[in-house]
Structure formats: structure tokens, C-alpha cells
Design brief:
2 copies of one chain form a homodimer.
Chain A (H helix, E strand, L loop, with lengths): L1 H12 L8 H16 L6 E2 L1 H10 L6 H13 L4 E3 L7 E3 L7 E4 L4 E4 L6 E3 L10 E10 L7
Parallel strand pairs in A: 4-7
Antiparallel strand pairs in A: 1-3, 2-3, 4-5
Helix pairs in contact in A: 1-2, 3-4
The structure holds a DNA duplex.
DNA sequence: ATACTTGCAAATCGTTTGCAATACC
DNA sequence: GGTATTGCAAACGATTTGCAAGTAT
């Protein structure tokens, strides 16, 4: 049952057919089931973090495979990359346009309520230029409490 | 004369007394004189880029020293770090609050005219939290022309 | 003289890749 | 059976660090 609902991710959400292997299922379970059950609690993980989680969940997956799967999930539109934090790539289960708090203490990204932030008067772009993405990061101070 | 105006940077702008060594003077000359002469043409460089520049200018400086000096200049308030681009740290001679275009093709950061962008209705912060910095990056598409 | 700086090389961190062994359809 | 996927280990790029040698005050 759990296995089925995760498989659906590969069947319905993704474009590319990703074989539902043991490793990918385990990763998808952690990423998308946790996210789907909680009320829009989207996840923000690094490869290292996710690797620790799978191992903790009792499934053997190599770190290289976690990296590869995160990239494949991203290519399939299941995840979005965020690279706003020094030297790390975060993968976000929320693939819609939105912005983040960054909490340096816990090294965490937290979604900003999209209704609570807006950009006004976008600057004129150079002629012919197009926007790929607008990313806002509100970096909190170190002593800030956890959200 | 040039040497003197660069030395002033160390005397007046910085808090910490940084010894005006041959290497630091060469780096400061590239970073701050170029920036000061052009009308607010602030610079955005990575350590590698700056290292190439010093070598090209005929001054032998090791890459490690460039890294170290960039960090020291930052600690002294002469530079600001920006980490919005995957796996690279850009150092910005504009230390005031401002935002950036990122041009993937040329791997460049470009200042956004501060009068042309604004955030409205900042989200409520978790109680006790304080903002360290707000960073907006407008990532342009790959095919976008140079600015 | 002495404390600060440098440069090198090695170490580290996050990430990617080549390739042989393995799992899926 | 044939192709996709995995895991390991090595390679990688960006950055940091330990330490001996050099330089500024």
C-alpha cells in the first residue's frame, strides 16, 4: 500500500519513466509521503541529509545513488533545486514559485508563506532577456530561534 | 600615488589593521580602484577570477592568499559575500543592501538598480527572529544577452 | 625582534563520474 | 536477455588549513 502510493509518483507525476527500484522507492517515500501527509509540509533536504535518513530507515543506499536520484527526480519535475546557501544544494519538494527563510543555526530552509511576500516593480531587463527564476532568501540571524 | 590611494583603504575604510603587503595592495587595487574610478561600477569576483587578474597584472600571488585576503577584506567590511550561485562565492565591492541579476551564460552577477526593485509586506518572522539579510536573485535564462 | 603574512602542498567538503556488478522488465 | 540502475572508488572543483619560510613594523 505504501509501496503503491509511492509508485504512483513515478507513474503519474513524473514524465520520464523511472524504474521503481528499492532505492528510489525508499527515497521517494521519505521525500513525498512525509510531505503529502503533513499539511503542505514541504521538505528541504541535502543529499547528505537524505542519505542519513534512508540509512536510518533501514534501507541500504549509497550516497552516489542519492545524488543521482535527486537529480533524476529534479529532471522529472518532482523536486526543485535551491542553491542559495553556501556550497550546498537543497532539494525542495515544493516545485512551485516560492521563497525561503534560511536559518543558519540549524542550516535549514523554511518556506515563506507566499501570501506574505511580494516583489514590486521588477527592474527592467536588458532587451531580449527573460527571467528564469526569482529567488528571495531571508537569512535570519544566528541567534534566531528555530521556526 | 596609486599605492597611496589603495593604502587609504586599509587605513580608513577597514576596522582591522591589515598590513599593506605587496599581495594585498595588488588585490585591493584591482578590487577598489577599478570600482572607485568607474561611476559606481561595483565588482563581483570569485577568488579564481581575481587570482587570474592579479597574475595577469604581473604580481605573483598564490591562490590561497587570494582566498585568505578576500575573507579578511570581508571581515574588515570592505567586501560582501554572495553565495547565490551554485558552489561559488562571489565577493562584491558593493557592501550596501542590494540585489542581483545572475547571467548563467557569462557566469556573472550584475547589480539591480536599487530604485527598481522592492519587497512589499515582509512575512512575519518567528517570534524573536531577526533578519540578517534579504537577498534577491533574478536568474536570467541562458539565452539572455549580456548586460 | 617579533608578530603577522605568505605559499605550498595536503586536507576537506560537496558533488560527479567511470565502470563492473546487479536488478528490473 | 538486454537495458537501466547501483555501488564503489577515484576524480573533481572550490575552499581551507598546517606549517615552514619570508616580510612588515
Amino acid at each position: 500500500m505504501i509501496k503503491n502510493s509511492v509508485s504512483e509518483i513515478f507513474c503519474f507525476r513524473g514524465q520520464q519513466s523511472l524504474r521503481p527500484t528499492r532505492q528510489r522507492l525508499a527515497l521517494a517515500r521519505l521525500l513525498f509521503l512525509a510531505a503529502d501527509t503533513g499539511a503542505q509540509h514541504h521538505r528541504h533536504v541535502t543529499a547528505e541529509q537524505l542519505h542519513s535518513e534512508v540509512l536510518a530507515s533501514g534501507v541500504e543506499v549509497s550516497l552516489a545513488t542519492v545524488y543521482n536520484c535527486l537529480k533524476q527526480f529534479t529532471a522529472a519535475g518532482l523536486l526543485r533545486e535551491s542553491m542559495v546557501v553556501a556550497g550546498k544544494t537543497y532539494y525542495d519538494t515544493n516545485t512551485t514559485d516560492h521563497h525561503h527563510f534560511y536559518l543558519p543555526e540549524s542550516d535549514q530552509l523554511v518556506d515563506i508563506d507566499p501570501t506574505k511576500i511580494a516583489l514590486v516593480s521588477l527592474p527592467e531587463l536588458p532587451p531580449g532577456a527573460e527571467i528564469e527564476r526569482v529567488e528571495v532568501v531571508i537569512r535570519l540571524k544566528n541567534k534566531s530561534p528555530k521556526i
